[in-house]
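Tutorial handout. Part one gives the primary structure; part two gives the three-dimensional structure as tokens.
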Amino acid sequence: MKLDVKTLDGGTAGSVDLPETIFGLAPRPDLVQRMVLWQLAKRQAGTHKTKGRAEIWRTGKKLYKQKGSGNARHGSARVAQFRGGGRAFGPVVRSHAHDLTKKVRSLALRHALSAKLQSGSVIILDEAKLEAARTKVLIENFGKLGLTSALFIDGATVEANFALAARNIPNIDVLPVQGINVYDILRRDTLVLTKAAVEALEARFK
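Part two.
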């Protein structure tokens, strides 16, 4: 399928053929959801922690005699029933990551790209370059392209001036093609790919 190529100032620069195997799939929300859950679970810190009874510094001596006091039968001040005691079944430090096969991850990315294209939210850019790192100039260019929330995917490296100018603009993300991922594609309204990014994606999924 053909898509017009635009320049950063809103002009046109020909067209490009997008491969059907990457951008022409019927989107499967279940695959995309699995991928997003995998990404979010993998980056979750899992550093929540409470102290159990074995970690509380308190005497283990029996508090009072077993019988005759009328109180419950306690043998330690570290138990969860007492204020200052250990927490029963509290959270522990752990990893929330789970497995997802490489084949499913690759397929989910292609389905996310296809869904974005079918919704008309993909723009192909000739190149993402600026002569100077001027945020004001970049905001004006985004206005010409109608961009308020976008993910920019460039080639193997992101041009330094463009990255510097874009990093201070809210709802604008810039990544090299190696960093393209399903979650970032979905969280922005528009996906902007440079011609170098399209070529790299074709080579990656060949």
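Part three, for discussion. The longest strand covers residues 12-17. The mean pLDDT is 94.
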